[in-house]
C-alpha cells in the first residue's frame, strides 16, 4: 500500500514538472519579446551629424532653438529612427573642422551634413584652401563610413568681399557637391540672410524665428535621404 502511494506521488510530481506554470511561461515570453523589441529599436537607430559653425551650434539661441534641434523635433514627430548630433562650433573654419572631425567620427554616422566655410569667407581666406579642407573632411567621413549619405550646405559672402571672390566662393559648394555626389542645400541662409528682423543684432546670426526657416531649408533636402 505504501509503495503504491509513493508511486502515485512520483507520477504526480512528473506531471506537475512537465506542465510547469503556464502563467510564468507567458510572462517570460512577454519579457523576451519586450527585450527583443528594445534591442531592435536600438539597432535601427541611426545618427545624423550636423558638422559646422556657429550657425549650426545656434549662437545666441537656446540649444532647443538651433536648427538641428528643430530637425530632431520634426523627425520625432514622424517617429523616424534618427538621432541628431549637433557638431557645430562657433568660429569654426574649414581648417579647424578638418582638425576635429576624427573625434566626432568615433560615433557611427549614417547621414553627414557639412556646414563649413562661412568663417573662411568672412576672413577672405583663399577659396582653393577652403576647398581643399572641405574635401579632406569629406574624404575622412567617407573612409570611415563608406555607406554614409552626405549633404553640403551652401553659403555666400557679402559683395564687399569682391565680385570674383564672392562668385568663386558661392560656386565652391555646388562643385564640391557634384564631385562627391552629395545632396546640396543651395544656400543655408535663404530667406534669412540680410533680413534684419530674422537676424540678431550682429546681423549675421539668425534669431529663433530665423532658425525655423533654416530648418525648413535643410529639411527640404534632408527628408529625401531619410
Could you please describe the fold and organization of this structure?
This protein is an alpha/beta fold. 54% of the residues lie in helices and 12% in strands. The chain has helices spanning 2-19, 22-44, 54-57, 67-77, 94-104, 118-122, 127-144, 163-179, 208-222, and strands at 46-52, 82-88, 111-115, 149-153, 183-185. It has a 5-stranded parallel β-sheet with strand order 2-1-3-4-5, with helices on both faces. Helix 4 (67-77) crosses helix 9 (208-222) and helix 5 runs parallel beside helix 7. It is globular. The relative contact order is 0.12.
Distinctive features:
226 residues, alpha/beta, five-stranded parallel β-sheet, 5 strands, globular, disordered N terminus
What is shown here, in short?
The protein is α/β, with parallel strands linked by helices. The protein is 54% helix and 12% strand.
Amino acid at each position: 500500500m505504501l509503495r503504491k502511494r509513493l508511486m502515485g506521488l512520483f507520477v504526480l510530481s512528473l506531471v506537475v514538472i512537465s506542465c510547469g506554470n503556464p502563467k510564468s511561461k507567458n510572462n517570460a515570453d512577454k519579457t523576451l519579446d519586450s527585450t527583443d523589441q528594445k534591442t531592435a529599436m536600438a539597432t535601427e537607430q541611426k545618427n545624423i551629424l550636423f558638422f559646422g559653425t556657429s550657425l549650426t551650434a545656434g549662437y545666441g539661441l537656446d540649444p532647443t532653438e538651433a536648427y538641428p534641434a528643430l530637425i530632431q523635433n520634426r523627425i520625432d514627430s514622424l517617429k523616424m529612427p534618427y538621432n541628431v548630433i549637433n557638431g557645430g562650433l562657433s568660429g569654426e573654419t574649414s581648417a579647424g573642422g578638418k582638425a576635429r572631425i576624427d573625434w566626432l567620427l568615433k560615433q557611427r554616422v549614417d547621414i553627414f551634413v557639412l556646414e563649413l566655410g562661412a568663417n573662411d569667407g568672412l576672413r577672405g581666406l583663399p577659396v582653393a584652401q577652403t576647398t581643399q579642407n572641405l574635401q579632406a573632411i569629406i574624404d575622412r567621413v567617407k573612409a570611415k563610413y563608406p555607406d554614409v549619405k552626405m549633404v553640403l550646405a551652401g553659403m555666400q559672402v557679402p559683395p564687399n568681399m569682391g565680385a570674383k571672390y564672392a562668385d568663386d566662393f558661392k560656386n565652391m559648394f555646388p562643385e564640391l557637391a557634384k564631385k562627391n555626389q552629395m545632396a546640396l542645400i543651395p544656400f543655408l541662409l535663404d530667406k534669412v540672410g540680410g533680413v534684419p528682423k530674422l537676424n540678431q543684432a550682429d546681423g549675421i546670426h539668425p534669431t529663433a524665428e530665423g532658425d525655423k526657416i533654416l530648418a525648413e531649408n535643410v529639411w527640404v533636402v534632408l527628408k529625401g535621404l531619410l
